[in-house]
Every structure is written in structure tokens, then in C-alpha cells.
Specification:
Length: about 120
């Protein structure tokens, strides 16, 4: 599981700057929607919630790119026992973070489906 996230993070690394640009664009959409003069009728053209969901997805994508980029590899031939233990503890922490990441992804998928259904 951890190796899949490492490979995915490495392949998607060039898209990091694009995500910042899209996130700034979505924040701009939200700000313009909030600063728009209120009308007596509810606006059917409100993109604020969709932009908010897009920002949440982009934040999750940035978490993937930044968190799983530099994971220590298992070094079987290392000379010290403490170095091997240190690497195993670090990888255990990354496994825990991977489980949290997958859980967070499932929650965001659920929220997206609920928001788009309404």
C-alpha cells in the first residue's frame, strides 16, 4: 500500500504547481460569489459549494504529493541495528498516515456524493 502511494506521488509531482494555480482560481470564485450583491431570489448559478469541494480535493491531492514523496526504503544491508529500527519506526508512522489518508479520501468521496445529490 505504501509503495503504491510513493509511486503515485512521484509520478504526479509535476502537477503540484498546477494545483496551486487551480486552488487560487477556486478561492477567487468563492470570494466573488460571497461578495456578489444579494438578490431577493436564490441564485441557481452558485458555484461556491462546488469550488469549496474542489479546494478540498486539491488539498487532499497536495497532502498526497507532499507526505508520500520521501519515504525511507527498507535497508536490509545497513550496519547498525538502531538504523534498521529507526527506519521501521518511520515506515510504521507512514503506514498509519497512509491509513488516515485513505480514510480521509473515503470521507471526502462520501461528502462529494452527498453534496452533488442534493
Amino acid at each position: 500500500m505504501l509503495e503504491i502511494l510513493v509511486k503515485l506521488s512521484a509520478k504526479l509531482q509535476p502537477l503540484r504547481k498546477l494545483t496551486y494555480l487551480v486552488m487560487a482560481l477556486l478561492i477567487g470564485i468563492i470570494v466573488t460569489q460571497l461578495l456578489e450583491t444579494p438578490s431577493p431570489f436564490p441564485s441557481k448559478n452558485s458555484y461556491a459549494m462546488l469550488s469549496f469541494m474542489g479546494i478540498i480535493w486539491l488539498l487532499l491531492f497536495n497532502i498526497l504529493l507532499s507526505l508520500f514523496h520521501n519515504i525511507p526504503t527498507l535497508d536490509v544491508g545497513s550496519k547498525g541495528i538502531f538504523k534498521r529500527v529507526k527506519i521501521r519506526v518511520q515506515r510504521s508512522c507512514y503506514h498509519l498516515l497512509a491509513l488516515i489518508f485513505i480514510g480521509l479520501t473515503l470521507v471526502i468521496v462520501f461528502l462529494t456524493v452527498r453534496m452533488l445529490r442534493v
